[in-house]
Amino acid sequence: MIDPQTLAHTLADLGQPAYRTGQVYRALARGLVTDFAQISELPASLRRDLAGRLVVQSLVPRDELVSPRGAVRKALLEAGDGCAVEAVLMTYRRRATVCVSTQVGCAVGCPFCASGALGLARDLRAEEMVDQVLHFARLLTSLGRRVTNVVFMGMGEPFHVYDETLRACRLLNDPEGFALAARGISVSTAGVVPGIRRFATEPLQLNLAVSLHAATDELRDRLVPLNRRYPLDELFSACEDYVEARGRKLFFEYVVLAAVNDGDDQVAALARRLRRPLYHLNLIACNETGGEFARPGARELAALADRLRRAGVACTVRRSPGGEIAAACGQLALRRRGVGQAGGCGCGRSGGREAGGPEPAGAVSTASPT
Ligand code: SAH
Ligand code: SF4
I want to staple 139 with a disulfide (CB 3.0 to 4.6 A). Which of 42, 58, 212, 369 is the partner? Predict the structure, then answer.
């Protein structure tokens, strides 16, 4: 993807008429071309000139894993500097959701999350976020389908790279370009309060999710280290203001860690915080990432949802597909098939704990669709 402003600037520099910008931009965002050479409406000399100045694909697919029943795909995509990220496509009936990474690794360091274990190598640019979506959009087009939803829930903390995340949302939503409805786009934050406040003022009708995971500061300080900077009172003050300003539902994500955050104390604290019309809690069973935390059973999870509902909290148990290929929530950690990449994206900038290891048995692999 190339931002239309950059395109306009480059084309003007090449002495081209203004209408060329729309022509090239539509070929990228709608035609999903991967190379200027594929834009047949352009003169050959212009295609060559553009290729000499701009790169169409900021990320190149290096590996792809497909779940046994084909509903989930995880792609490893590499940037020009050797940094790589993972992105996931989940298809379900008419929905096709792409889960996008915003950073290479993550600086927050939640102890149950594989992305956090990598540390942070670098932020992604908006074009790199959009290219994760376009990668899967090409595959879907060949199947007569299109991307219906985008969730910024892959590697990284979107509000640590706020400007680029919002620029990516605008590019995806642009009616002249990819034209994805804003209500199909969701951004998830671990609780960066200034980001939530700013998001409340955005003109686009995007969805927001806040990763809560604990409703007491003592436990949340441990599970989401960002809580030490933005404790619960501050976080909920921003959440209140958000729903007041937007009049939109606010989703809270809660990774259930067996015997850690599913006790009566948390249920009571959650009820105190969340008994409110536009708040909705999503419970997600912890996907194992090789750490100290255990996944609760389906029965325990349903029982927790019942206790919460009886306490007045609107809540749902959410599926988190893709565990067979380490593509479920919290499992994105740059693993290449059969090769453990310690802390690794290959660019040498990652500074986290050791992560990696071979893909779990049962993963079905295919060649990249592009
Ligand atoms: N950094 C942002 C967005 C990316 S994480 C955030 O934390 O919200 C996306 C979601 O995956 C978050 O709700 C996160 O808590 C959840 N997650 C992380 N590790 C997980 C795990 N091991 N099992 C299930 N969900 C996990
Ligand atoms: Fe970062 Fe989100 Fe993972 Fe926490 S859960 S380490 S904020 S990606």
Answer: 369
Taking CA atoms, 12 is separated from 15, 55, 191, 221, in Å, by 5, 17, 42, 52
For the entire predicted model, the pTM comes to 0.91
Closest by Cα among 333, 101, 74, 238 to 252? 238
Burial 294-315 (b: 16+ CB within 10 A, else e): ebbeeeebeebbebbeebebbb
Residue whose tokens read 């409703």: 215
Chain-centre distance of CA 237, in angstroms? 25
Is 57:34 a contact under the CB 8 Å cutoff?
yes
Q: 312-349 pLDDT, tens per residue?
A: 999 999 987 777 777 667 676 665 543 333 333 334 34
Cα–Cα distance for residue pair 160/213, rounded to 1 Å:
19
**Closest ligand 2 atom, CA of 224?**
4
Burial 69-81 (b: 16+ CB within 10 A, else e): eeebbbbbbbbee
Query: Which protein residues touch ligand 1 with a CB less than 6 Å away?
Result: 106, 112-113, 153, 157, 188-190, 211, 253, 255, 284, 286-287, 289, 320, 329-330
Q: Which two tokens stand for residue 193?
A: 């309060």
